[in-house]
Amino acid sequence: MLLTIDCGNTNTVFSIWDGEKFLCTLRTSTHHSRTADAYFTWYSTLVKHYGLDVDITDVIISSTVPRVVFNLRVFADRFFDCRPYVVGKPGCDLPILPRVDAGTGVGPDRLANAAGAFDRHGGDVVVVDFGTATNFDVVAEDGAYVGGVIAPGVNLSLEALHQGAAALPHVDITQPDKVIGTNTVGCIQSGVFWGYVGLIQGIIARIKDEYGRPMKVVGTGGLAPLFATGDMLFDTIEDDLTMHGLTVIYNYNKNRG
């Protein structure tokens, strides 16, 4: 079985793939100091809790936090006796190379999103990924990642507002009942929620206009379902898109021998 690992700035996600479906998805906070033993203790405890009998033979890693990769490599080698594929590193090839400015590094999560989106939708796709940042990934007709947009993440914006304005409380993001807030919390929730709806709509419209072809819009990441309720922002929501993309990249490398 395949263990896919997506390490972001805030959370790290493990999903177990049996070749046809994901058996479970496990989530923990990202800490660069977490050891291989600590990863395994957390992982094995949850696998036992869910009553899963799994035999991991391969591991693929996508990480936007370089400092965690070493311990994840040790984790794979020590506990599963395998050398993991690491997206963006030598030994892990991509089905289609990105087309961006020379010397530009592309986040491995964005490469995984492109692979997953192309596999499911055939290209000409915008992926809106809600994480620490809100990323817009443009996937060309042939499946290549060809660029995108990076905007501040929703929770990051809320935290910055709370820290930068002493009188404003920290609030949870939700869709408010009305646009005009009648208290401080309602005002903040309306500003953040509808502000991001406008941001998403505006950026997608500009991407489509510049791209010049019909495009499908796919939402992914933890807050994608929330913003799908705010307006018709997405053609579809796929919470496992990044992990699916990792399985696509893994299969491409495995089949190449």
UniProtKB/TrEMBL annotation:
Per the record, the major location class is cytoplasm
Alphabetized UniProt keyword annotations: ATP-binding, Coenzyme A biosynthesis, Cytoplasm, Kinase, Metal-binding, Nucleotide-binding, Potassium, Transferase
CDD domains, per the entry: ASKHA_NBD_PanK-III
Which residues fall in a coiled-coil region? none
Q: What class of enzyme is it?
A: transferase
Which residues does the record give as substrate binding sites? 107-110, 184
SUPFAM superfamilies associated with the record: Actin-like ATPase domain
A biological process (GO) of this protein is: coenzyme A biosynthetic process
Pfam families in the record? Pan_kinase
- Record localization: Cytoplasm
Reactions mediated catalytically? (R)-pantothenate + ATP = (R)-4'-phosphopantothenate + ADP + H(+)
Instruction: List, separated by semicolons, the cofactors it needs.
Output: NH4(+); K(+)
**Signal peptide stretch:** none
Q: In which pathway does it act?
A: Cofactor biosynthesis; coenzyme A biosynthesis; CoA from (R)-pantothenate: step 1/5
The record's free-text note on cofactor binding: A monovalent cation. Ammonium or potassium.
Q: Which residues are involved in binding K(+)? A: 129
Q: Which family does it belong to?
A: Belongs to the type III pantothenate kinase family.
**What exactly does this protein do?**
Catalyzes the phosphorylation of pantothenate (Pan), the first step in CoA biosynthesis.
Q: What is this protein called?
A: Type III pantothenate kinase
- Organism expressing this protein natively: Pelagimonas phthalicica
